[in-house]
Records
---
Amino acid sequence: MATGKKIVPGKVPLSSGPRGFPTANTLESPQLNGVDYYDFRSSMLRARGGGVMPSKRLGRTQDPTVLVLTSLTGGSKHGYSLIKDIEQMSGVSYGPGTLYGVLARLEQEGLVEPLPSEDRRRPYRITATGARVLRERLETTAKVASIGLRRLGAMGA
């Protein structure tokens, strides 16, 4: 593990993160012999099939917090129901580890609360605070989406 910001060609500089795990301390994508990995990958995929490949970077912007809270606006749900609803709503499939990590954090923040268990399943519901936070986030996202779509239209895209 690197201790400073020494840059080695072809390597992403590392620093020590939480609990000593290495983390990238750069926002740039990895370099392969001076070529940006994502540019290289995209050019290779286009060369094989032609056309423009959808960006994988944009797919990573799906925020599990927003998806979980949005799912819970449809009523209380347990883990499996949340996973299926999120998948149907967004096409994103989260595993139990991701989902329960998000639920634990949202519960800690007071945005969701567990309900009494009817069997071995533990349902959750969104709180009033969670609904307010979600509304603010969705309104901001809708505003940005509207501006982006309007600007794309002006570009002829």
---
Amino acid sequence: MFWELISQNSRVLIKSERIRNSHMTQTAGKKNLSSHEIAKHIASLSLSKKAIDIKILDVRNLTSVTDFFVICSGDSDMQVKAISEEIIEKLKEINIRPWHKEGVTNFQWVLLDFIDVVVHIFRTEVRRFYGLESLWGDAKIEEVKDSDDS
């Protein structure tokens, strides 16, 4: 509990420092990207690896820990791995790196923490079990679909 509190406080300090330095949260080359633009880019990268049920949750009015969650699912460990690797590699190309990663050894639930955007990549059945969307039920939810699915 004590260490979790310290970790939480460190995270808020890091986020506060970033916000103080700029109204835009990340720099990609010469273009500043807002946290919402980063979340949308992550959702698009997830789609490129055939992630399913992609949602962007706006939690800015609910917590100071992050601005957005991007939640998606994959049907297999290999698909969850492919989605997470795609996000990490493509964001690295624009100088955005995760502050923290979890679940990258068993690929049931991968968490990629980019401070202002936290990505949750689940195996489908694990996502159903934890029901993360219902825990953040007051968040504004944006569903992301492939244009072919319209």
---
Amino acid sequence: MVETSDPSRQCDEAPQAVPPRDEASGAGAAELPYPAPQPDEVTRPFWDACARRELCFQECAGCGHRWLPPSVLCPRCWGADTRWTPACGEGTVFSFAVYHRAYHPAFRSRLPYVVAVIELGEGPRLLSNVVGMAPAEVRVDMPVRLEFQDEGGVTLPVFRPVGMSVSRPDGPPVSQPGEGGG
């Protein structure tokens, strides 16, 4: 039993150290199967669109509200007349966290990584990852653009910063297209 500063919270064992990731080779902890989403009848249209490299959100025909994650009813008016609408792929970081601990073994080699709430240009928000820059450089309100990443047999929407100089995790700052410089 490991003592903690809060006596009501005791751990059976100390947290395990995670080997650092070698950014150049991608080596680190052994690659394990990715914990892929399990689509159901409500979420399947979202994942099918991602497989086509298209990000879609739901829109209510009654009140016009747009949202993610998928649901059978509009969360604003409870209407059932909904449709899937493609997103433009532009958005901003609404909020984010940098993970320094892997809560699933498949993520150990990715540490640290960014989980962010992305606000799409059309309004809906979704949880995703910000890629292509050092986690310490991610900022709220940072403009991002949609990309897709194949992972464990599933195509996932991820977001990359646009219109700013960023440092790659493995190198010096680089300029984004349309910015001049580098």
---
Amino acid sequence: MRTAAPPSALEAGVSSGGPCRVLLSGGLDSSACLVWALEHFGHVDAVGFDYGQHHRRELKAAQAIAELLGVSFRIERIEGLRGGLLNGGRMGPGAVVPGRNVAFVRAALAMAPRPSAIVLGATAEDQAVFDDCRRYRMDAWELALGVKILSPLVTKTKEDVILSLGEHRSRILDLSWSCYQGGSEPCGTCGACVVRAQGIERAELDSTDSRGGRSGS
């Protein structure tokens, strides 16, 4: 767990005692959340989840990004999720794994030490497809679970996310991965790859920086 600068105004408004815990998938959105958390919180750690996804390659990316940013990272196993990506879904509603985000939040909350806040990388673009990326869902989880859930990207596009990476942008573009397929290279055609490529184009970045369209959330 990284210890950084004195508490920010945001951190002062969150219950004290535990780290700010980032749900780190190894893709662009969660990586941007980690960068954001380090700017706003003095104590930050991160967790990734093995839930039977074909693209477990993302967990190696998450580990590499956590190391790049000097943050403690753990992988937790989650059983029982079904559908969507786990059944070969690749685009739009077909990629939805029901209950995935709330399962991640519950698992992150159960880890010791108990976090003071949990950061989830839901974006504006996610909300059209993924119901559990909508803020009203997170508000309900906060009430039910008794933990602050932060969603700093919830009004952001993929272009915004890429630009928010700041000095770490080039390295995170190189390291990140969330292509839905399980191969050694990104497929370039699944929903995550397509959205990432569009974000890079809109951010006017050289596509070679992404090493063939490594993509994700």
